[in-house]
Design goal:
5 helices; mainly alpha
Length: 164
Amino acid sequence: MSLHRTDLFAGLVVTSLGLAALAGAVAMPRFAERNGDPLTAPGITPGIVSGVIAVLGLLLLLRAMLGSGPRDLPVESWPPGAARRTLFTLATTLAYGGATFGQMPFLPATALFIFAFTFGAELMRPDRSRTALSLALWAAVLAGVSAFAIEFLFTDLFLVRLPG
């Protein structure tokens, strides 16, 4: 039985993030003093999601300790371009979360993120068949439709106020 370091590290990170988010959700107001329905408290959905994330992180930790699952692969054995695409994914996600989200209205920030991520990730694919112009048009349509759909879903169906 061997310890899988990648799963162990990822399990620790995911479990920690899930537990931290769960603590934040539990600390949110419950509106009990206003006789609010407990199922409408703002921390319910984040609490459920973060609890599931924490449990999945624990399962990943368990898998790592039992030595099951895929073997650790050194970065040198990744498919060509995988490290670059991984770094691109991290960079665009962090840019969305840190530089645009909350700094500009939700709709353009989300559309910009979806466009940049889709266009950039597809440009990096060695087997892509679309031209850069065709890809840019497709990414723009996808970004616009997705951003409006996400805003509608959260504001009109889930009744969540979005930043901006």
